[in-house]
Amino acid sequence: MAKKTLNVGIVGYGFMGRTHANAFRKVTNFFDLPATPVLKAACGRDEAKLKAYCDRWGWESAETDWRKLIDRKDIDVIDICTPNDSHAEIAIAAARAGKMVMCEKPLAMNGPQGEEMVRVIEETKVPNMVWYNYRRVPAVTFAKQLIDEGRLGRIFHYRAKFLQDWTISADLPQGGAGLWRLDAGAAGSGVTGDLLAHCIDTALWLNGTIGSVSAMTETFIKQRTHTATGTVQEVKIDDACAFLARFDNGSLATFESTRYARGHKALYTLEINGENASIAWDLHDLHRLQFFDYKDQGSLRGWRSIHITDGDHPYMSKWWVPGLQIGYEHTFVHQVADFFEGAANGKSVAPTFRDALETQYVCDAVLDSAKNGRWQDVKHAI
Ligand code: SOE
After folding, report:
1. What is the pTM of this model?
2. Which of 53, 55, 255, 341 could form a disulfide with 13 if both were Cys (CB 3.0 to 4.6 A apart)?
């Protein structure tokens, strides 16, 4: 018998803690699910911040030690929103305790750590999922449908970028809330694991596995004060990364990411060119999908901009009326809806830990290639 409610215990109350809490709260207002998420407990180290987070988002109780949260009998799902260096320890302990696990991206600090996570999660058979949320932008989900229907035909090119500009100031420290992304000890890598991982996850989903990569990275600001010690330390993350890739289906790709593209805040774009049609998508205009179909009558042929707000577009029948668009936060609601649909029936939901390990392997190959200056084959998990 499916349970009517599943109690969630979240670890972490930062930016992702807010997006997830918002999704847990909203999801059953819009989706009919076999199990309703209950915001049972939130966990974090700073008691005052944790209390403010619980009060604002409606978490029933608070814990300052994630081990205690995992020990609680009244918790069914552990949701991990902590910096990357703690994902493995928390996820493995949660799985061993029989809890379902939702984990923020990237799965792990590197491939080998991800392998251990996959080994345990598959051994314990707990439902699992990794929060690569951009798959669930309705326009991106729709792109997947068009590709699966064969509308693009043979795919020749995949092009993706994720551009930001928030770390240009040399005064920005590394470490601490939000800024842990600049600290390799907490993040594992820079833009490769943080931003390109999103592009890679979407790409693997839309266009299949990647066989080999050739990359370059740069760290523009070589030293920054570390928040924890107050001393100036070497910066070990990649500030920018660009790589070429060969997909196993024969298509060629370029990927680029940086936090130094002045003027760009979160410009995630992708374009796919096939023999019959092309598609393009842009996070700043996320409710539109650009589509070019060579089968259109010649004189009328051109890029069309499809407003992905109709009831027959993915997820959209759950929201308002045709023509009214949704945004970033809704991708998390969709992810919660899909997870609870699967989890209530004991199933994992894509991207699973194993799917996310495949992304991790691409990231590892990219970073290796940038170091050794050679094309690098990608190890496969799927
Ligand atoms: C970094 O600035 C960041 O917040 C990433 O960590 C998220 O995954 C991405 O969606 C937006 O940018």
Report:
1. 0.98
2. 53
